[in-house]
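ok trying again, last paste got cut off:
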Amino acid sequence: MKTSLVLTLIGRDRPGLVSALAARASAAGANWMESRLAQLAGQFAGVVRLEVEEGDAARLEAALRGLEAEGLRLAIEHAAAAGAAGARRMVRLGLVGHDRPGIVRDISAVLARHGVSIEELETACESAPMSSEPLFRADALLDVPASVSLEAVRGDLEALANELMVDLSLDERG
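nice, full thing came through this time. structure:
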């Protein structure tokens, strides 16, 4: 039977980090299932899910711990089996507006009140094309339970978007 290990990692960015991680995973018989990796302010950070035979999980974990001697900090969790979540739908949220503290806090609070889970979130601050003022962008994939009114979520998010003075889109994926 297979099991998943979910890793979070961070360390000073340098060439070869992904290669070192992949080599250790492969040597232990693991399959690289999914990941989100990025260089942020000179640090390499990421989340990786590896799948391996249960009998090889301890060997994989030991091999991965060897990367800590190379300056990579790791947290390793054994993934729980996914339970039946009921009918759900995936919705894409897009947001753009002038940057200010609290945008992610405010948006995520509305989503949490409705029981909406954030499956993916990507944010960036960049210069606006004409004014060069800081512009905040967010793109999220939301997991909305079938029992939750998408119109109620949309209404609360649009009210908040007006208050924050940001443009917001919410589109159900087909």
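cool. Helices lie at 17-27, 57-65, 103-113, 150-164. The chain has a mean pLDDT of 92.
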